[in-house]
Amino acid sequence: MNGQKWMSLLGLANRARKIISGEELVVKEVRSGRAKLVILAADASSNTEKKISDKCSYYKVPLTKVENRSLLGQAIGKEARVTVAVLDEGFARKLQTLLD
Question: Rounded to an integer, what distance in angstroms lies between the CA atom of residue 77 and that of residue 63?
Answer without folding.
Answer: 21
